[in-house]
Design a protein that fits this description.
By secondary structure, the chain is α/β, with parallel strands linked by helices. 50% of the residues lie in helices and 8% in strands. It contains 21 helices and 7 strands. It has a 5-stranded parallel sheet with strand order 2-3-4-1-5, with helices on both faces. A two-stranded parallel ribbon has the order 6-7.
Length: 438
Amino acid sequence: MELFGNQSNTTIKPLAERCRPKSFKDFYGQEHIVGKGGIIQSMIQKRALRSLILWGPPGSGKTTLAHLIAIECNVELFVLNAISSGVSDVRKVIEKGKVQSEHYGRQCILLIDEIHRFNKGQQDSLLHAVEQGEVVLIGATTENPSFEVNPPLLSRCQVLQLKSLDHDHVKTIIQSAIQNDPTFNKLSIEINDESLEKIALLSNGDARVALKILESSIELSLNQNNHHVISPDLIEKASQKRIPYHDKQGEYHYNVISAFIKSMRGSDPQAALYYLAVMLEGGEDIEFIARRMIILASEDIGNADPQALILASSCLTAIKNIGMPEARIILSQVVAYLSAAPKSNSSYTAIEQALSTVRDREYDIPFHLRNAPTKLMKDLKYGKNYQYPHNFDQHFVKENYLPDELQGKIFYQPTDQGYEKQIRAYLTYLWGENYDID
């Protein structure tokens, strides 16, 4: 017996569409905006619709929220997908919205899914209609609106950020689908807490993925008198492999690399290795990872461990020659080393201060430090009285190297971390009170 019978002439909607909530009591997650006192609940209670940008990860409920707002406010909802729609489609909806507003005093909602895929011209076509209230725009996006939505349109909308669903929300959605879906509630479906947790884990907070895994699991389960046992092993088989969400060009890309760098800077190898794994599983460019590690080795470790820069540079060379999957081992080794290394940003702050000084004013180079390759330059006293350090005891002589106006200025201030502690002690020994690094 086929699970769905003979459906050759019938199009079956995906489970996620069949189970879309019809009221807020069946909507799970996003309590911070739909719960008591939340922005959406307040907007619905006051019947004060406003244009929104719903920003959140896949399967967090953006499209469903738009449908529920339309249902609760009893207004017509027009749905466009930015991938397959253009300006002409937008204008048609706007014209319908104008008719609704002018003749019936009613608002309508225009939901544009994946609004970040609209170019500037397409987004600009919405400005007047949103400004005049001819339509209430709800844009759904997985990308940071600050980067993907034009500022004029963004200023006319309120941005609401949705979160990934937690495991309890996902498990509740699965149980609700089993009980309420017209196809599944005719079956005897056995699923325990371990299996529910397995789906929640594999779905990564995406309700749509969770429902697809459930649907595939039921299709693969042994059907004995319409009794389907959904075991963890069956779920694993049905889901194949969870593909991590990692957009190599979007906001998530920058958030992960930021967390990766900050974890190494914070000397936490466990967190750094976790974010490395996230990037590797998401298909991140391994050379991009290695280049960022080279920067960190100099900016955040510096002379506290000069070996760090050498090792990070060697890492880039090695992974270019080796490639994946073995490159992951090299990256792991260097990530662990950089995380555990003593930290100092003295070299970074030194050049920033020096650049700031130069940008304010560039001073004359002292005559004794100038190059004198010609007789004229020597006559002008270029290089006169320069003291050659190697002619002195310990190959050092106290000399004025900075311009006169900057005498006593300190740019590089070694810390007491790692090898830099020895550098600090040596410079203090050489320069004494004149080298004020405290």
